[in-house]
Amino acid sequence: MIRLSPGEPVRRGRREWAVDTGAFVLAAVFSVVTSEPVVDNPAVSDARLAADQVAGALACAALWLRRRWPVGVALAILPVGVFSHFVAGPLEVALFTVAVHRRPRTVARVTALALVCLVATVLVRPDPHTPPELDVFIGLVLIGGVVGWGLYVRSRRQLLASLYERARRDTREAVAREMHDVLAHRLSLLSVHAGALEYRPDAPPGDVRQAAGVIRESAHQALEELREVIGVLRSDAGNGTRNGAEHPQPTLADLLRLVEETRRAGTPVDLRQETGGAADVPRAVGRTAYRVVQEGLTNARKHAAGCEIEVVVAGGPRRGLTVEVRNRLGGTAQNTTRSTSGPAVPGAGVGLVGLAERVALAGGRLEHGRDGGDFRLRAWLPWRA
To answer: Does residue 29 sit within a domain?
Structure first.
């Protein structure tokens, strides 16, 4: 892992060692390849040429510190470059590093200083074979090229980081939706049956045993479904497909089982399926429809316990799949059930929000709210032939 804040220790992995070695070699090669005008210049003494080469070697060595102090390395090399040609290669690498790892304001200041040093270099070390204007132009191209390339690399890294963070956020939201869908349904069933035991201590032993059995079964199912969700999430994360194959997610074919569980909890449910066969519904569409019905039943048990629930699933290829869950609001049934089954099941208020996100991801639409004296939850999902 590389830490780029000033003063923090740098730990290089294989990739970082390869990149730093490549930068060192590239800087040295660039300086040597472009040194012919300096080496062949009779006005340059041997002592000055040797000092120039030593300065270039030290500048190349300083590149190993560029990850920790990119601005410092660039500022140290820039004034030396006015008098030494062999510093040109390390200077290009240093400017590139500043553009990659520092804010645009800092990059602009360092670049401006580099342009000033470029003009000073042409005045202090003029090339007898090249016009000064051409020297300045070549320098501008080199500086602009490495700085522009560095800014592009920086923006690309920021884009990838933002996409990675968005993917992490979407994954957390997906996990939250799955956990809510699985646990809210099962725990609401547990609350209904446990409330019945609490508020009817004089119930016949047979009813107590039956309620206790339903509680145990619901708890077992909650653990199983939670394990299924975790298995699918691990499979989606790239840990293989075995868990996903062993623990398939529910589809529209499991809707009758879901309704029967709600009926056994004492809530009357009228289910109508008009799809011409649940097996014909695509799995992804059926899974989303199942979650819509599950959330509708859970909300009805929380806020209108004992009231009859009407579930309608209709549609077909090309015209889409419509799922509607409707229940009465308030009234005698709700009050009676609460008096015998305990207080209303608390809710976090995020079920419908997560459901809307799920339906939107499937390309559908979700509507919910009061419809006269009823609460209606309605979803439309695309069904492609």
So the answer is: yes
